[in-house]
Amino acid sequence: PQARLGHMPEAERPEHVRKVIAVASGKGGVGKSTVAVNLAAAFAAQGLRVGLLDADIYGPSAPTMLGVDGEPTFDDEKRLVPLEAWGLKVMSIGFIVEPGDAAIWRGPMASSALRTMMGSAWGTADQPLDVLVIDLPPGTGDIQLTLVQRLKLDGVVVVSTPQEIALIDARRAATMFAKTGAPILGVIENMAWFEDPTGARVPIFGEGGAAAEAERLGVPLLAQVPIEMALRQACDAGQPLVATRPDSAASRAFLQAAERL
Ligand code: ADP
Fold first, then answer.
1. CATH of the domain at 41
2. I want to staple 66 with a disulfide (CB 3.0 to 4.6 A). Which of 16, 47, 85, 225 is the partner?
């Protein structure tokens, strides 16, 4: 990959967007999209103007998790106009293609779709977006590399469960981003524990690993998000938990992560 990166075209960044943060994971199912959605909602709760770009070609989640769907329109400058939900500007690969179609794309096609979505009308000169959160496809394959090497990211947040396999994959993701020059801002440990009815924390997927991994990478462990039924329900109901139940333990973890970024 190093050789290819040497011929990297100029990285791109969207207009009128102050900060671009990508949320990545080494593998699927660790809660990357859950984190991306709730992190975006947490930034919005701080009073920031926030966009969410759901670039997960293997399974776009924003339409389900935010309860928003529709066909985006184009503005006078032929830019896609993001949809709005929960105070966020939202663009998802799921708005643009039929379910399943994007999953079989090759790198250049996924890349070009992402560039088009990046070029959406996120903000104006008067009202720039403060932060754009990108929900990347999971993994560290060629497609992911092609995607991220063209983007000018301000930083990457890596999501992992405490489980060893997820941590190893997260390490691969960190290595990939190091090659693109995008700084890793920190690790968010998801499914860190489950609080049983007595209040005891049960480390279902193990413990301590994410903190050790963050230390190894020399980045902060931004938050530990517990397993919460309310979080799963909120995702299914199309509601960011941070917006509907900001006092829950998981929401407090997301708000803490946003605070530290
Ligand atoms: P990924 O984007 O990594 O594939 P998702 O964010 O789509 O993972 O999460 C997979 C499923 O797990 C979702 O249905 C979500 O609601 C649920 N989930 C994720 N994190 C938690 C958590 N901490 N507690 C409860 N459910 C969770």
1. 3.40.50.300
2. 85
Q: Which residue's CA is the nearest one to ligand 1's atom 15?
A: 232
What does DSSP assign to residue 261? -
Tell me whether residue 30 is annotated as binding.
Answer: yes
Residue with CA at minimum distance from ligand 1 atom 26: 232
pLDDT above 90 as % of the chain = 70
- Residue 218 is labelled as binding a ligand: no
**Residue 7 scores a pLDDT above 70:** no
- Residue 2 is predicted with a pLDDT of 37
Looking at ligand 1, which residue's alpha carbon is closest to its atom 8? 31
Q: According to the model, what pLDDT value does residue 4 have? A: 39
Q: Could you give the CA distance from residue 204 to residue 46 in angstroms, rounded to a whole number? A: 32
Which position has the token pair 């489980």? Answer: 163
Total domain count for the chain? 1
Q: What is the pTM of this model?
A: 0.94
* Helix, coil or strand: residue 166: helix
Out of 235, 239, 242, 244, give the residue to mutate to test ligand 1, the one with the largest number of ligand atoms within 8 Å of its CB: 235
pLDDT (average), residues 101-108: 85
138 Cβ contact partners less than 8 Å away, ≥ 6 residues apart: 24, 25, 26, 27, 28, 29, 30, 32, 56, 58
Q: 254 pLDDT exceeds 50?
A: yes
Domain assignment of residue 11, given as a range = 2-260
